[in-house]
Design the sequence.
């Protein structure tokens, strides 16, 4: 069984473990999958060291945890539409210009976000494999995570009361509002992903109805349920608040790291780097969500209270 074979290491007191001596490209037993799910539930982040994967084997590993999401835009994927090319390197190995639309989309990832929040059923897990990583002397390129369960716990009572009835509109098309260098989506792409609204305070039935903060900075920069200027100001406050070191873990990449995280309770962002000088090539599989985001006033939650 997995727990008898691997070496685990706590990465921080906020979140995360590192797992060594485990091959993600091989068939995984049911009991081991369940153990990995439990680790994710407790620690929210796993780094599997020294993996050897491609798009097919990454997709196969990701499917152990659920159905794969298809990415909204075909031309920004790597090979198959279920595997997203999170890179400034093309599928053919070309180092892309910082002005290339595929790189502009990566730059938007330097804003705090949770993957697929623009879906009515947002994703559960993201699984990201580092094919090419920055040299150790380079500045930036890490992926930083912030624990939203911990961030909620540390809110003052008046801030909790303020945030509970509020929501945010998440729109894939609105990435163009933040990154006007991206081309317009097609009508079909827009119709496949209409804007959705999620509560800013998320309730987790599978975690004994614990609460976390749930918002993003890569689709919009305002909180709804209040005036526009108030909503922008509150969004800015949230960004500063969840960026505190006491909530965050910064992952410094080594080649062939495979990281897996829980989008329901973590926000993440890439630390900006010199896109023209360094190559950074990664591929991502995403586990599809099956339930909507519940807030404090959702019927399922209110009936439980």
Sequence:
């Amino acid at each position: 069984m997995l727990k008898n074979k691997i070496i685990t290491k706590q990465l921080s007191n906020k979140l995360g473990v590192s797992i060594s001596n485990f091959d993600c490209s091989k068939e995984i037993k049911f009991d081991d999958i369940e153990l990995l799910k439990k680790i994710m539930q407790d620690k929210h982040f796993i780094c599997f060291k020294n993996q050897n994967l491609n798009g097919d084997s990454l997709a196969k590993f990701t499917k152990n945890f659920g159905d794969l999401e298809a990415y909204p835009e075909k031309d920004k994927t790597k090979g198959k539409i279920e595997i997203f090319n999170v890179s400034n390197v093309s599928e053919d190995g070309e180092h892309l210009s910082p002005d290339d639309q595929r790189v502009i989309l990566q730059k938007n990832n330097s804003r705090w976000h949770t993957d697929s929040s623009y879906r009515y059923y947002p994703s559960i897990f993201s699984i990201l494999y580092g094919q090419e990583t920055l040299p150790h002397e380079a500045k930036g390129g890490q992926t930083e995570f912030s624990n939203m369960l911990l961030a909620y716990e540390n809110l003052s009572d008046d801030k909790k009361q303020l945030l509970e009835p509020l929501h945010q509109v998440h729109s894939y098309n609105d990435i163009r509002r933040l990154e006007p260098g991206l081309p317009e989506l097609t009508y079909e792409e827009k119709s496949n992903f209409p804007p959705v609204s999620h509560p800013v305070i998320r309730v987790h039935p599978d975690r004994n109805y614990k609460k976390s903060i749930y918002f993003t900075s890569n689709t919009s920069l305002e909180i709804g349920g209040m005036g526009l200027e108030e909503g922008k100001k509150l969004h800015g406050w949230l960004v500063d608040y969840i960026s505190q070191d006491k909530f965050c873990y910064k992952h410094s990449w080594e080649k062939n790291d495979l990281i897996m995280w829980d989008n329901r309770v973590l926000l993440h962002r890439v630390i900006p780097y010199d896109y023209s000088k360094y190559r950074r090539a990664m591929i991502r599989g995403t586990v599809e969500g099956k339930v909507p985001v519940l807030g404090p006033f959702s019927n399922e939650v209110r009936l439980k209270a």
About this structure: DSSP finds nine helices and 15 strands in the chain.
